[in-house]
Design a protein that fits this description.
Keywords: Signal. It comes from Thermus scotoductus (strain ATCC 700910 / SA-01). This is Lipoprotein. It is a single chain. This protein is mostly beta strands and about 170 residues long. The protein has one domain: Beta Barrel (Lipocalin). It is built from one helix and ten strands. Strands 1-2-3-4-5-6-7-8-9-10 form a ten-stranded antiparallel beta barrel. A hairpin with a 2-residue loop joins strand 2 and strand 3. About 5% of the residues have low confidence.
Amino acid sequence: MRALVVLALLLAGCAPIAVLRSPEPVQGHVFTVGGSVFPSSQGQYPVWAVPYLGYAGGNGFWEFNFSVQGSPRVGGKLKLAPGLSLDGGLSLLLTSRGSVAFRDLDVGLIMGVDRFYVSPRLHALAYGDRSDLAFQVSLGYWGEGWVLEAGYPGPYLALGLTFGTAPSGL
C-alpha cells in the first residue's frame, strides 16, 4: 500500500505532471505525444521519464481534453479572454482490481503571451483516508507542431509533438 501511495504522489498533483496545452481552447482537434523527465532523489537512475499522450477537441471557446501521463485525466478548458483560459480536470489512478486508489482534482489558469504560456494550478489530492492540496506552476513555449514546458514541483521538463485539425499557433 505504501508503494501505491508513493506512486500516486509521483504520478499526480504534487509531482511533475505536464500541462502541454495551448493557452486558449483549440478549434478542431489536437493530439499531443511526448513525455516528461524529472530528477529522482531515490532509485538507481538520476532521472525519471514519464510518457505523455493527449487529445483536445473544441470550438475555440470551450475544449474537452483527455490525457494520460501515469494516470488518465479528463478535463475541460474555458476561454475567459484572449490568451487566458480556465482549465481543470480529474485524474484517477486505478488498482488492478478496478477500484480507485487515488484521485486528483486540478484547476488552474493558462495565460499566454505570443507563444509563451504560464499555468499556475491547484490540485486537491485524495488517497486512501488522506487528502492534501498541492500547488503547481508551469512555463511553456508553443511552437509549430511542438510544445516545450518546464514546471515546479519536480522540477520537470516536458516536450510534446502536436498534430491535428486545429489551426497552428496560438
